[in-house]
Amino acid sequence: MGLMQWIGRPFGLLSGPWRAYYGTESTSGETVTYDKAMQLDAVWACVNLIANSVKTLPCLVYKDDGVTVDRESQLYELLHDMPNFDDTAADFWAMVAMCLCLDGNFFAEKKMRGSSLSSLIPFDPLCVEVCRDDRNARYYEVTERVNGRGKGGKRKISAENMLHIRGALLPGCDRGLSPISVERNVIGNALSGEKTAGKMFKNGLLSSLLVSSDQILKADQRKQISDTLTQFAGADKAGGVTVLEAGFKPYPLSINPKDAQMLESRQYSVEQICRIFGVPPVMIGHAANGTTTWGSGIEQLILQFTKTCLVPMLRSIEASIYRDLLTPQTRKTTVVKFSIEGLLRGDSAARADFLQKMVGAGIYEPNEARAYENKAPRPGGRPTDSQRHDDAAQQSGRGDGKYAELARTAAKTRCIGNKS
How far apart (Å, rounded) are the C-alpha atoms in residues 62 and 328? Predict the structure, then answer.
C-alpha cells in the first residue's frame, strides 16, 4: 500500500463518532490533510528523517537471554528480511514510522499458514476503523480497495489477526492520536503562510492596487481600466508599462513582508513543526538560534534525537510486536528488539578508544570488538558472545562436546573432594 494512495484525504482527531465533532478546518481557514501537510518542506523533512532513520535499524529476534540472535526463527525472517512479498523489511519499517508520524496508527494483517505466521500485509490507516462488539472485544473494519482505486466492501478482522501499532494514546481510546490532526492549527498556519508568500511572489510582491481619479466613472469604464491594469499583474509580467489617462493615479496597497514578519513567522513555523515531531531543527537544515553543525555539537543532537524521538517509537513497535505477534509460549523464549548501535557510533577515533577500553576492561572480547566493526573473527581469538553462550550451555552439562565432558569430570572431582 503506497503513500500516494491515501494521502490527501481529510481526517478527524480520533476514530468513530469523534470525527463528527472534530472538523478538518484550522483556525487559519486552511483544510489540513496529510497530502497538504507533506507539501510543507519542514513536515516532509521531519517525517522523512524519522522514516529513513528507522529503516536503517535492523529488527532482530533473540532467544530468551536477549543476547543470542535466533536466526532460525520464522519471525526473524519476517521482521529482519521480508515481511511480505511486496515489501522489504526496510520499506516496511519506514512505512510504520511514516504512518505513526502522520496518523498515529499502523495496521498490518497477519496471514497464517497453518499455525505459523507467514506474512504481514500493511493497510492504509485511513481505511481501518477500530471497533468494539457487544462483549467489548476489539475488532477492525477494513475498507478494501479495488485495484488501488475506489472503495470496495468492508471486511471484519479480529484483533488476533491484526498487528496494531499506536503512537500517543488517551485512556479509553483504541486508536492513537494523529500528530497532524492534533496540531492542525500549527500546520494550517504554516500552509497559510506558504500560500500568502506564493501569492505575493506571483503578483510580483504587489498584493493589490488602488487607482484614484478626479472624475466620476461609469461601470464599463471601471471595468476597462481594471482589465488594462490586470494585464500587467504577476511576477512574469513585472517591468511592463501602461499609460493612465484623465488624471488617474495608482496607489499600491502592499505590505512590506518584513513589516508583516512574514519571514520570521515562516521560520517560526519550521521550529513549531520540529517540536511536533521531536526533531532538532538543525537536523533538517534549519540552523536557528546560533545552533551549529560543527564539532561534537551535532553528535549530541543526534543522541538527543535518538533518545527522545526514535527510542520511544521503537519501544511502541516492540511492545506491539510482543502483544500481537508472539504467543503466550513464545513470549517466554523470544525477545524482539531493534538494534540502534549504528546510530550511537561516534567517529573512528572515538570508536577506537571505546573498543580499546572495553577490551582492556574485559567487558568485550577481541572478536566481539571486531564484530562491532563488522570484521570477521580472528582465528585463535577469544569467542564471540554467541559462541560463549553455546560454550556455557555445554559446560553446564546440556551439550555433548568437550566442554560437557570437562564439566562432568569437574563435577566428579568436587564430589570426591567433598567425600574425603
Answer: 16
CB-count burial class (<10 Å; 0-12, 13-18, 19+) for 321: buried
Question: CB under 8 Å to 176, separation ≥6 — which residues?
Answer: 100, 103, 104, 105, 166, 167, 168, 169
75 beta partners: none
- What are the two backbone dihedrals, phi and then psi, of residue 303, each rounded to the nearest 5 degrees? -65, -45
Amino acid at 206: L
User: How distant is the alpha carbon of residue 401 from its chain centre?
Assistant: 47
**CB-based contact 162:325 (threshold 8 Å):** no
DSSP state at residue 401: S
C-alpha cell recorded at residue 195: 500560500
**Residue type present at position 250:** P
Half-sphere exposure of 5 (CA within 13 A, CB side): 16
Q: Hunting for cell 488602488 — which residue is that?
A: 210
Give the three cell numbers for residue 355. Answer: 573498543
Cα–Cα distance between 252 and 210 in angstroms, integer? 6
Concatenating the DSSP letter of every residue in 19-66 gives GGTS-SB-TTSPBP-HHHHHTSHHHHHHHHHHHHHHHTS-EEEE-TTS
Block means of pLDDT (10 residues each) for the chain, 420 residues, are: 47 41 61 88 95 94 89 92 95 96 95 92 92 94 74 86 94 91 88 74 57 69 70 54 60 55 73 92 76 64 89 96 94 93 73 86 85 76 54 47 46 44
Coil/strand/helix, residue 71: coil
